[in-house]
Amino acid sequence: MENILSLSNITKNYGKIRALDGVSFEVPGGSVFGILGPNGSGKTTLLSIILNVLSADTGNYLWFGKPGSPEQRKKIGSLLETPNFYHYLSAVSNLKITNSISGRGDLKGIDDVLEKVKLFERRNSRFSSYSLGMKQRLAIAAALLGDPQVLFFDEPTNGLDPVGIAEIRELIIELSKKGHTIIMASHLLDEVEKVCTHVAILKKGTLLTTGNVNDVLVDDDLVEISAANIDALLTAINNYGNGIKINRDGNLLQLTLPKGTAQLDDINNYCFSHGIVLNHLLFKKKRLEAKFFELTNN
Ligand code: ATP
């Protein structure tokens, strides 16, 4: 699918602090795209730049293949600019006010967005009577006014209880099914795994990796092996057992094993006992885990 957003070499300094360092990635249309990283990794800075609230020192980005413009900005709804709702007013009255400030939607649009976030039944209740999760859903409703193609969320489940968290995650998935592309910042690996189709992982302003969640956050153990005689290796490893799946990629064999079961020394021994000396043995999943360890321990 066509890319909605392309970032190229974005760098941003705050005085001596380098908040972003040459960040480049692509957001495919229709994706739920997670920007994952611990506190201080540059997520909010990045979202602010692509929403044109901050300017980058170097690099550029394209929305729908073109440089940012007010026209394109209308296709983008954001929870960064969360409206201050009036506590004594209902959801409908609050959205009317938001609407008249932003000029994004019409009155029918208000009913539609309240339906989408499942607050229609409670549309006439005061904001002050809402749970935190409902308040967050109303903020999402405000971002949905004018039916923007792209939605931005910064830490959408922060501060919510488990029920509120589950509701918001489910809502994000539903909005994606309805055709919105969603870009969200999160410091929770688990949240990104549950909600996102694609991810970019940031650490201290640097992009560690990006791509499809299933490729980046592999669940199984992945081991690459190779030997001079690849055909003999393939024949031998076919009988290794342990729920192994084998994929040949040129002179490499990619072995997929159930999570946590790959033993490199065992594989090496097994091959050697079948007369094959490996010239390549690499545990890929472990490297990713190491990346996440670095991420979550800073
Ligand atoms: P958090 O989840 O805590 O908001 P984040 O991943 O969104 O973190 P940013 O808020 O983008 O990260 O911050 C990236 C780095 O830039 C941090 O080191 C932060 O202290 C610094 N920073 C952010 N805003 C400013 C500012 N206005 N002036 C100086 N430094 C800043």
CATH architecture of the largest domain: 3-Layer(aba) Sandwich
Quickly count the domains.
Answer: 2
**Overall shape:** elongated
Bound molecules: adenosine-5'-triphosphate
In which range does the helix fraction lie?
25-40%
Q: What is the CATH level 1 assignment of the largest domain?
A: Alpha Beta
Give me the CATH fold name of the largest domain. Rossmann fold
| Oligomeric state of the chains in view | single chain
Total DSSP helices: 11
Structural class by sheet pairing and helices: alpha/beta
Overall pLDDT score: 87
Tell me how many strands there are.
13
Beta-strand residue percentage: 25-35%
Care to describe what's here?
The protein has 298 residues and is an alpha/beta fold. The chain has two domains: 3-216, P-loop containing nucleotide triphosphate hydrolases (Rossmann fold); 218-287, Alpha-Beta Plaits (2-Layer Sandwich), CATH 3.30.70.100. 35% of the residues lie in helices and 29% in strands. It has helices spanning 43-50, 70-73, 91-102, 107-116, 132-144, 162-177, 189-195, 213-216, 230-237, 264-273, 284-296; strands spanning 3-14, 17-28, 32-36, 58-63, 76-78, 150-154, 181-186, 198-203, 206-212, 221-227, 245-249, 252-257, 278-283. The longest helix has 16 residues, at 162-177. The chain is elongated, with a radius of gyration of 23 Å. The model has no long low-confidence stretch (mean pLDDT 87). Bound molecules: adenosine-5'-triphosphate. Adenosine-5'-triphosphate is lined by residues 14, 17, 19, 37, 39-45, 187.
